[in-house]
Specification:
mainly beta, three-stranded antiparallel sheet, signal, OMPP1/FadL/TodX, membrane
Length: 373
C-alpha cells in the first residue's frame, strides 16, 4: 500500500496541458527511488484538451471563434531502479519534461487572427538519480539530467508569413534533495530541487521569401517539489505534492521575430518574446489511496493551480486549472503491478492579446506497468 503514491504518477502523464502555458508535461517526481528492491516501469499517457476562444480584437472578424487550437498528444516514460546496497539506490528515468502542440484552424474557416498558426516544442530528458540512506530514516538525493529540446512555429499574425525552426540541442542540469521516512506508518516526505537548463539554439527564421540564420537561448526553469504521504488508518494513505516552478525564467525570443515593428519600419514597438510568462506557478495535489485487498488498490486525487490573471500568450491560452484524478492498481503477480488512471481537468479561463478563452477542459488517461525483481 505504501507504493500507491507512485502509481498516481501515471495520472500526471496525461495532465501536462493543464500546467503553465501548456508547456510542462512532467512533474519530475523522484518516487521511483522509494520502490522496494530492484524495479523497472514503463508508462504511456494521452491528454485531449479542448481549448478555444473568441476574438476580442479589431483584427480578423470581431467575435470570431478560434476553434479548438490544442490537439491531443501522447507521452512515454521509462524508469529503472537498482538497489546497490543497504545504503545506496540508483535510478534512471526517461520522460518529456516540456512540450507543446498548437494548431489553430485555418483563418479562412474561422476569421480568427491566429487562424492557421501552428507550433510545437519537443523534449526528452534522461535523469540519473542516487539516494544515500542514513541510519535515522533521513536520505539524501542527487542526480544529473540530460535534456534534449527543439521547436518550430508558423504564424500569419502579427507577422504575415513568419516561421521559425530550431536546431535540436542537448544540455545538462542537476537534482538535489532530502527525504524522511517512517515505515511503521507508511510516512514519507521528499523535498527536491531541479536546476534550470539553458539551451543555445541555432534557428532559421523566415518572413515570406526571406530566410535568416539566427541564434538565441531559452531556459527551461528551475523547480522545487515537495512530495508526501502518510498512513491515516489501516490500508489508507493521505498523499500529495506541492510544486513550484520559476516560469519567469522561461521565454522564447527569436531575434528576427522580436525585433519586428508590427506598425511599420523603424525601431519603435518591437514584438519582443514569442513566448514568455509573467508569473511563477505553485501546483497543489492532494488525495487518498486505499488498499481493498491483496490485489487491488485505488486512489482519488485533486489538483489545483491558481488563476493568475493578466494577458497570456496566444500560443498558450490557459491560466491555472482544477482537476480530479482516479487511479486503480492491480497486483497481477507477486512482482508485476499494473496501474491505470483517468483525469479530468477544468482549464482556467485566459485572456490573450486578441481573444478570451473560457469554458475549456480536457481528459487524460495513463497506463503504467511496474516490475519488482
Amino acid at each position: 500500500m505504501k507504493r500507491v503514491m507512485t502509481s498516481m504518477a501515471a495520472l500526471a502523464i496525461g495532465a501536462g496541458a493543464a500546467h503553465a502555458g501548456g508547456v510542462e508535461r512532467s512533474t519530475q517526481s523522484v518516487g521511483i527511488l522509494f520502490e522496494q528492491g530492484n524495479y523497472a516501469e514503463i508508462g504511456f499517457g494521452a491528454f485531449n484538451p479542448d481549448v478555444s476562444g473568441t476574438n476580442t480584437s479589431p483584427f480578423g472578424i470581431p467575435g470570431a471563434k478560434s476553434g479548438d487550437m490544442a490537439p491531443g498528444y501522447g507521452t512515454f516514460t521509462f524508469g529503472y531502479k537498482q538497489s546497490l546496497s543497504d545504503q545506496w539506490d540508483l535510478a534512471i528515468t526517461v520522460d518529456q519534461p516540456i512540450g507543446a502542440k498548437v494548431n489553430y484552424p485555418a483563418a479562412t474557416s474561422t476569421g480568427y487572427p491566429l487562424g492557421g498558426a501552428n507550433a510545437s516544442i519537443d523534449s526528452t530528458a534522461i535523469t540519473a538519480l542516487v539516494r544515500y540512506k542514513m541510519p535515522n530514516n533521513v536520505s539524501f538525493i542527487g542526480g544529473i539530467r540530460s535534456q534534449e529540446a527543439k521547436g518550430n512555429v508558423s504564424l500569419n499574425f502579427p507577422i504575415p508569413g513568419y516561421s521559425m525552426k530550431t536546431s535540436s540541442e542537448t544540455d545538462f542540469g542537476y537534482v538535489v534533495g532530502v527525504a524522511w521516512e517512517k515505515p511503521e506508518i507508511a510516512a514519507r516526505v521528499a523535498l527536491t530541487y531541479n536546476s534550470k537548463i539553458t539551451h543555445d539554439f541555432d534557428a532559421t527564421e523566415t518572413i515570406g521569401p526571406n530566410s535568416f540564420d539566427t541564434s538565441f537561448s531559452t531556459t527551461t526553469p528551475e523547480s522545487v517539489n515537495l512530495e508526501f504521504q502518510t498512513g491515516i488508518m489501516k490500508d489508507t494513505l493521505l498523499m500529495g505534492s506541492v510544486r513550484w516552478v520559476h516560469w519567469t525564467q522561461f521565454d522564447i525570443t527569436p531575434p528576427v521575430y522580436a525585433g519586428v515593428d508590427p506598425d511599420g519600419p523603424g525601431p519603435a514597438g518591437p514584438l519582443g518574446p514569442l513566448v514568455s510568462y509573467d508569473n511563477n506557478t505553485i501546483t497543489y495535489n492532494l488525495g487518498v489511496g486505499r488498499r481493498f485487498n491483496d490485489q487491488w488498490s485505488g486512489a482519488v486525487m485533486f489538483g489545483y493551480e491558481k488563476h493568475q490573471g493578466g494577458i497570456v500568450g496566444n500560443l498558450g491560452p490557459t491560466d491555472g486549472f482544477k482537476s480530479v484524478s482516479l487511479a486503480a492498481s492491480y497486483q497481477a503477480t507477486s512482482n508485476i503491478k499494473i496501474t491505470g488512471g483517468v483525469r479530468y481537468v477544468d482549464i482556467g479561463d485566459a485572456t490573450t492579446s486578441v481573444g478570451d478563452f473560457t469554458g475549456n477542459d480536457g481528459w487524460g488517461a495513463g497506463l503504467r506497468v511496474g516490475i519488482n525483481f
